[in-house]
Amino acid sequence: MPTNIQRNKLFVASCLALLVTSLSFGIRAGVLNQQGIDFHLNASKLGTIAATAFWGFPLAVIIGGIVVDIIGMKKLLVMAFVFHLAGILLTIFASGYWSLFISTLLIGIANGTVEAACNPLVTALFPDNKTTKLNHFHLWFPGGIVIGTLIVFLFNKLGLSTQVQVGVMLIPALLYGYLFSQLEFPATERVSSGVSTKDMYASLLNPLFFFMIICMFGTAITELFTGQWIDVLLKNVSDNAILLLTIETGIMVVGRGFAGPVVHKFSPQGVLLISTILASLGLYLLGHTIGNMLFVGAIIFGMGVCYFWPTMLGFVSENLPKTGAVGINLMGGAGMFAVSVYTIFMGGFYDRLVAAKIPAGTTEANMANVMNEAKKAAGPEVINATLVIPVVLILAFIGLNVYMRRKKMAVA
Q1: 154-175, pLDDT tens digit by residue?
Q2: Where are the domains of the chain?
Q3: DSSP sequence for 18-63
Q4: Ramachandran region of residue 2, left (φ > 0), alpha (ψ -120 to 50) or beta?
Q5: Counting Cβ atoms within 10 Å, is residue 144 exposed (0-12), middle (13-18) or buried (19+)?
Q6: CATH number of 7-411
Q7: CB of 188 within 8 A of CB of 73?
Q8: What predicted TM-score, i.e. pTM, was given to this entire model?
């Protein structure tokens, strides 16, 4: 690597950029319910607003993946900073549905642009330790959610507004924007290794890549939909629903920090199978229990989804290296697109469940209590419907482990 490349500083700046991305998830998860109250928005509209972040993300990450080898990672990250700044400021000064919609879309585009540049940047900086370093990089996603949810919890106790909570994101955004503007960047791994553009796109037709894209739909929905909506779904089941997200993501931070020995012992495909089993058990507990058992469910669920995102990217980068930045970013874009579609669908599903549980003839005087009970019953039903996804993934990852073992034996 050229001597002018300051690897550690680039990695730190990348982590700060991802911190802004994750703060947007954690703080949005915490303020979403209050925004619904402030702007008189039902769950369907809140679902659409939350989903716009997941629309902007795949749009940016796929386009970014295509152009990153051409324009370079530095220019992409400058663009990410501009979109983050615009999205955060527009959220702070939002006046209703459409301003929240546009601001969330801008933040989603910024988040996707960060991933489009930083994932290939990490693999270029650490070519011999990709999956582990991607896990270390991506620990700042749950780390930022922990910080974001604690900010929401503390600021709510202090009576501070949602605008102040969102404004906290300006601090790391300004820091990463400054750092990236001062540093030199390496070429992407695909460019430096001499793989042609034609070979890169041809490698995307590998059946294993298609399989991993489909699995990415499921792992992303399991992790991100549940995390983004946990406060809405379980607010009437637990007095501390947002703390469930804090616990879950706290477990993810610790797990990703110790990714090296875990991935080395079990292999990426083994880690994915174990993770899916734990995620299924955690979702089952979140959807079928109350009280302290909800926190047990959050811990197990956090252990399950801990390695999903970075290990999926690491598996593709290690086993399909010719796919390059496009391959990694198509994986991320596919995951976020799936979450956006699922979030919109489940927002409407949740509203229909709540409406169906309100008895005909309910008086205005009793409506508040009846509505709370309806939401209390509907939230776990949405979680239970989502449980089907990781259960199916268990079978998929069993198949992946068998395939990789046979492939290894054939090479030997």
Answers
A1: 888 888 888 888 889 999 999 9
A2: 7-411
A3: HHHHHHHHHHHHHHHHHHHHHTT--HHHHHHHHHHHHHHHHHHHHH
A4: beta
A5: buried
A6: 1.20.1250.20
A7: yes
A8: 0.81
